[in-house]
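User: Just a sanity check before I run the rest of the batch. Below are the structure tokens for the first item. I only need the designed sequence back.
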């Protein structure tokens, strides 16, 4: 339990930082209004060479996937189809309307993000408990969290990863006065998701590079 509590506290801290950026997000085109992205793009001499260097760093494991994604977005905008841009934005900020997956698992929700796991409640102190919710009996869950959150979940020493279910945490926190909901799953599931993301992400960078 000590490892779980420590991991969850660190995880929720990172989630809170990410949520600050997500709060200003309203449609995937708006993401390119962020000053940080424009500032980064202005300082690059060539989008093609930037993406090539970025791809090499991703393949070599020299950069965090969340960071690489945020750096790539301003350089691929207008160079790939809108559905790919939307995929990148969803991977960076988290998938909206994730609860719809349980009643209507459409192509809006990538299958590689589905895991076998158990829902757990988390109190404000970071302690895990059993979850009393209809979805608790499902056993398979769509992890809608931003890719950077999944990276954090994979960094723990335990073989079990905890991923916050933001779509459930909000209502749960209101009902209990704090805390949230996590999906507890084997860390290999998270590694699989990260590998699938990396493969798709590198394919996009290669596609843009081929057009440069």
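Assistant: Here's the designed sequence for the first item:
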């Amino acid at each position: 339990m000590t490892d779980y509590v420590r991991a969850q506290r660190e995880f929720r801290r990172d989630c809170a930082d990410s949520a600050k950026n997500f709060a200003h997000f309203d449609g995937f085109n708006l993401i390119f209004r962020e000053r940080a992205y424009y500032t980064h793009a202005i300082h690059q001499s060539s989008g093609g060479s930037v993406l090539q260097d970025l791809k090499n760093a991703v393949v070599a494991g020299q950069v965090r996937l969340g960071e690489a994604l945020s750096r790539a977005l301003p350089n691929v905008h207008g160079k790939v189809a809108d559905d790919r841009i939307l995929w990148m934005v969803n991977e960076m900020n988290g998938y909206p309307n994730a609860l719809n997956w349980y009643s209507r698992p459409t192509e809006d929700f990538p299958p590689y993000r589905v895991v076998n796991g158990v829902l757990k409640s988390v109190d404000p102190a970071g302690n895990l408990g059993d979850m009393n919710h209809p979805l608790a009996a499902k056993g398979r869950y769509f992890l809608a969290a931003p890719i950077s959150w999944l990276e954090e979940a994979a960094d723990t020493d335990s073989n079990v990863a905890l991923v916050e279910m933001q779509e459930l945490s909000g209502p749960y926190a209101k009902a209990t006065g704090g805390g949230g909901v996590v999906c507890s799953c084997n860390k290999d599931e998270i590694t699989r998701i990260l590998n699938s993301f990396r493969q798709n992400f590198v394919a996009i960078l290669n596609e843009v590079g081929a057009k440069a």
